[in-house]
Design a protein that fits this description.
535 residues; globular; mainly beta; 33 strands
Length: 535
């Protein structure tokens, strides 16, 4: 979706992964909440220069919102417009020209060339104690590879985006850890991770009948880091037909990299659905929905949506590749967190040493401050192959701000290989659809779901009273449910057998493990899509 292109990328890897301190911090914040004072302290943690700040970007965004929208101009030369994917990838920024390389600072910047995937330039500036300095586009900074261009024709063309480099996996090599490229898309990496899902600055009317609007970051300001800095501060101006915004990003690379986001939004016109902290991913096939004629058992950047609600419930919704658009949501007041996770980390689950799906990060949104009432919405779009991002999730406030009324919101994005752990509960390790040998087909559908984690591992071998609490919606009849310990893995296996009444409609299933009325696991919340293409 949008004009952000999917790219494959691998972080430089050498040493072994370390224990995730960030995971423990996430769990601690979720357990105790985050105060406004804590948000203010986190705001002050990053470097800042008197010459420039969020207020400067906000002033520009507010001024833009008071004016009619001017669509960005596509001035892309014909030879770049017609470039295929591999030819565009052959245009590479020269690493020796990276900003701050000769200053031996912890962070460096490299830039991206315009092409068919991103056709409108963005303004890029650096900020230091002396003020704001625009980074001028220069084709001499690029190696055009096997392309036969006269680079002099591209003078003044402008940038497509930029990459941030930092020594993440090896002190002697600066890895690419963050990229902004296309619309309001950005991606980050932690240690031993490779690019997968993306985040966005904002989603507007996603999956709405009126059509989706894609705001874009039109300008960036990047603070020059101090020597020894472990964080980088980036400001961005967002613009689209109905909304403008000022953003502050604080990137902190680590085993689990974080990006703290503060945004001020200004509406030009009313918006039907405002999507806050959107995440965009890909799910083609998985254990719950095997692929057709594909040697790889699973193909996905994420395999489920995880949600931590205010009342302590954790929800796990496995992703699907539906036959037609599928939009579902979960309503809360003050969410504790949500994210698209890649839980399955087994190499054998993917068998793809080039794509390395087992090392693609999960992304967890940790709200900061008061988010109020709203809903986490999940959009799942049919896709025939893995080149399309077909999964989107975001937070929708119960009430969108009025035109002229600014909305400020803050959150922290965690890019993880593990977790976050669901609040002391057991979690779902796999969801499989299918049955073994059946002498006479009866039209029933079966799911096999495994739960594991400390609350279940601590139970005695002869435990009594553990059961699966299961509900199905009105479009299904539950025929059988079982729960038993898998003697080979130690996990607890739940099986559900049911019949769908109307194949043109979805079925919603919910289940969790409990003992004596106390939940021991997160809630498995599954949507079985319609079997037909048309409603």
């Amino acid at each position: 979706m949008g004009d952000g292109s999917r790219q494959q990328g691998v972080a430089h890897v050498q040493d072994a992964p370390s224990t995730s301190l960030a995971l423990r911090r996430v769990a601690l914040r979720l357990a105790h909440g985050v105060t406004l004072a804590a948000v203010a302290a986190l705001w002050a943690a990053g470097p800042a220069y008197a010459a420039f700040g969020l207020d400067d970007v906000a002033q520009r965004a507010k001024s833009l919102a008071a004016q009619p929208w001017k669509p960005p101009t596509d001035r892309l030369p014909a030879e770049l417009r017609e470039l295929e994917y591999d030819a565009l990838r052959d245009i590479r920024f020269k690493p020796e020209a990276a900003v701050w390389r000769n200053d031996h600072l912890p962070f460096e910047l490299q830039f991206m060339h315009l092409g068919r995937s991103v056709r409108t330039p963005v303004e890029i500036n650096t900020v230091d104690p002396s003020g704001v300095h625009e980074v001028p586009f220069d084709p001499a900074l690029f190696d055009y590879g096997s392309n036969r261009f006269d680079p002099r024709k591209f003078r003044g063309l402008g940038w497509a985006g930029f990459r941030v480099h930092y020594a993440l996996n090896n002190p002697g090599y600066k890895d690419e850890v963050l990229v902004f490229h296309g619309a309001s898309y950005f991606r980050a990496l932690g240690k031993h991770q490779v690019y997968g899902l993306s985040a966005r600055g904002l989603a507007v009317d996603t999956a709405a009948a009126t059509g989706e609007e894609f705001p874009r970051f039109s300008a960036f300001w990047i603070e020059r880091p101090r020597r020894g800095a472990t964080s980088l501060v980036i400001y961005a101006l967002l613009d689209s037909r109905r909304v403008t915004g000022a953003y502050r990003f604080v990137l902190t690379p680590a085993a689990d990299t974080t990006v703290q986001v503060t945004a001020r939004l200004y509406l030009r016109d009313a918006i039907g659905k405002l999507g806050i902290a959107p995440l965009t991913s890909m799910f083609l096939s998985g254990e719950n929905q095997p692929g057709h004629d594909d040697y790889r058992p699973e193909v996905h950047d994420s395999d489920g949506l995880s949600i931590a609600s205010a009342d302590g419930e954790w929800i796990w919704r496995p992703l699907v590749n539906p036959r037609r658009l599928l939009v579902t949501s979960f309503a809360f007041t003050q969410p504790r967190g949500f994210g698209l996770l890649q839980r399955d980390r087994a190499v054998s689950s993917y068998e793809d040493p080039e794509s390395l799906f087992e090392r693609r990060p999960s992304a967890w949104v940790e709200p900061l401050g008061d988010w109020g009432a709203g809903r986490v919405e999940l959009v799942q779009i049919p896709t025939p192959d893995e080149t399309n991002d077909n999964i989107v999730t975001y937070w929708v406030p119960a009430r969108s701000p009025a035109v002229g009324q600014p909305l400020e919101i803050a959150y922290r994005l965690h890019w993880l290989l593990e977790g976050p752990p669901p609040g002391g509960l057991a979690w779902v390790t796999q969801s499989r659809r299918g049955r073994g040998y059946v002498k006479q087909p009866d039209g029933d559908i079966q799911y096999v779901v495994d739960f594991d984690g400390p609350p279940l591992r601590s139970l005695p071998a002869d435990v009594k009273g553990l059961e699966a609490a299961v509900t199905v919606d009105a479009n299904a009849e539950l025929h059988e449910r079982n729960l038993y310990r898998n003697g080979e893995t130690g996990a607890w296996r739940m099986t559900l057998r049911f019949r769908r009444l109307d194949a043109s409609r979805p079925v919603e299933l919910r289940a969790h493990l409990e003992r004596e009325g106390r939940a021991l696991s997160e809630t498995w919340s599954y949507i079985l899509p319609p079997e037909s293409d048309k409603p």
